[in-house]
UniProtKB/TrEMBL annotation:
It comes from the Bacteria. This is IrrE N-terminal-like domain-containing protein. Residues 69-166 form the IrrE N-terminal-like domain. InterPro entries: IrrE_HExxH, Rad_response_metalloprotease. Pfam families: Peptidase_M78 (PF06114). Signal peptide: none annotated.
Amino acid sequence: MEINNRKRNQIKDLAEFLALEHDETVTPLNKIAELEELPVFYDDYGNAFDGTLVYDKSFYIHLNTTLGNTSDKERGRFTLAHELGHYFIDSHRIALKAGLIKPHPSRYNKNKHQVIEREADYFASCILMPEKRFRKDCEKYRKFDYQVIENLAKQYLVSITACAIRFADIGTHPIMLVYMEDNRIAWKWQSNDFRFWKLADDKEVVPKDSLAGKYFNTGTGEKRTEELWGVDWFDGISDDNINFKVYEQVIPYKNKVLSIVWY
């Protein structure tokens, strides 16, 4: 279930108001929590969760350092921003306080199906990379390549994935992200003005002639950018555009690959 436009705008306005109250490019999440008198506990919770917001006479956030959720790391910052979303979004906080919903222990980088988790993720993206500030920094780059995403991710202290999704939404150049596991497409995300929507093979199979497809087929590969034919990634390219080229940045890790595609 997708977030409806009205709720999406409300979340964006709230998150960006909180972020832009502070001058820092790296949004001071712990300071925001302190101003709300919302305790944040960093501790060892084994493999139970990345983060959770709990109500017991008052609200508390727990972050699991065992899974890398520390205040100075991209993973920990996104998890904290996600839990702040559950707190600041009125419908989440009120339902949790009233016992209408149970605490939602979050797991980082998992595909969220519940709308409440999608809303918290969207809040996290907006508070970490508020549109006014982020887009202004995007506009400093006259030409797009993968280095733009790397630079912005470092500047905002967010993961490559979170930064690329935000860039796809509000950046200055159309891109597509495809996340794959075990030679299957787990999810994809792209700019509204990205030229192509239909992948070369089908919506679940990794295109065999893409860099990602070659990685899965051979079991070897490294992080790199390569220029490919458009038909290596997309179906529906007309004969007039048969020589159309695209760029793919592949980021492989064990049985997983994130590809960023642009033209």
